[in-house]
Amino acid sequence: MLGMAALPVYAALPPGMESPVVTLTAGLATMAGVAGAYLFLRRQRPTRPEKTVLPVEQGDVNAWSCAGTGGALPAPLDGGTRYFLEAASADRGIEGWFNAEGSLFWINGAIEKATGYSIHEVLAGGFIDRLVYDRDQRYCRDQFAQALEGEASTEFELRLVTKDGRTVWMLGRWQPIRNDEGRLLGVRATLNDIQARKEAEYKLLESVAALRRAQALSEHYLRRSNEERSRLSALLDVVRVGILFMDADRRVVYCNRALHDIWGLAPGETFVGVRDVVLQQHVMERIADPTGYQRHLADVLSNREPSEPFEIRFLDGRIVTDFSRVVPGPDGTRPIGRIWVFEDVTEQRKVAGQLMRLAERDPLTNIYNRRRFHEELERMLADGCRHAEDVGLLSIDLDGFKPVNDNFGHQAGDRVLIGLATAVVAVVRRNEMFFRMGGDEFAILVPSGTKTELTELARRVCACIAALRFDCGAESVGVTASVGIAISSDCGNHGESLIGAADRAMYVAKSRGGNGWAFAESDEERLDRSGAAG
After folding, report:
1. Which of 151, 169, 250, 330 is deepest in the core (most CB within 10 A)?
2. Is the entire prediction scored with pTM above 0.70?
3. H/E element, 94
């Protein structure tokens, strides 16, 4: 029985070793090899194998014997060389042996579990060409060549292609195997499945790549945000209005350069993070009415609607307007703070005042002109109607002014008009308004005036003008005035009717020799006189 069981064993041995003694020895050695392989797999793999002969197990020898087409493969070396075959179980990993020429002549059954190829298919088709991924074949051959030249084992990673076309990552190790004389018998190949580890590594790499992309994108947006912030800050620094951002806790978030200039703050002083009450202490001492400004601030802060422009008058004469509104948050609900805008309008007010004076004042005498006369006439008539009060009008025309222009020139006439206007302004009262209507014509509007008051005013005006003397070269000249008086209630409270009545009364006074005044007839008196004449 022992001889029959050993037939497959010594059938693959070289000639000269086919004897019962050898068969017995091989059987015992096989049992010892199994025990040695088990102990070997329980320990770390040595960098250099034991230099004892470990015959193959029955099954492994069958795998080796099936490699050829017609029987047993020849031994990797000549007869007498001791073979070292580490037969490992399929549960531990793929184990194989390549001869010195690079041909695989033994592999364990784990290859079928890992790739789907049987042992016969692997041995018949060539390990590298059949199983190794195309892009890894050259690398695998280079690693094998290095293993043939070196003493120590080397590790490497490669991909195997399974029978169903999948790709499986393996961690490989080449370990050169030598006999007692140091002659190379072959290379031991160990492959362990690291697909799960590779998938974890790939996922980790993808996560790292995603994090890097997110970080790069975040850095990009942060850089863009900082650039936009710098551009906005530069823009706000060149505008001529003061900008102040306060957060929801009333702390300063940002203030531009113009704000320092408007409030007289030190250029290098920063107020970021300072509460509004501290900032107010710096500016209240510069304001003409700090109490009024405090009330304005309280009104604005108690309301979430945009504020109306408010004028702040400074002790140095400057005028600054402020405007404020709440800054809504990104979600449009809770506000994130408030913005204040301050503008120095001192020059604007001066220019506006100059334009207003040009629009409503006579450029020669600097008293109100005809345009302002019509505006005030309509306003006074409206007020008189509401309060049941009369509006009086004095229409003034100079007597003897034309000879002054004709004899002494227009410059002399201008001096007369300027001097006359200055003198009459001193005569009229504060609620009475004096106008130049054009040429040598003037007018005075009197709100809530009675006939007695109007008569007294006309007397003062005529006396004032008649007393004036003007030097025109070697001569001293003077003029007088004819004054017509009209009352709104006598003219139906209509502006044009009031003007017409005063003009007619003025001509009546002039027809009497000038330097006097006359009252206009009422509408009823004029109708009565017209009826009597008829």
Report:
1. 169
2. no
3. strand 94-99
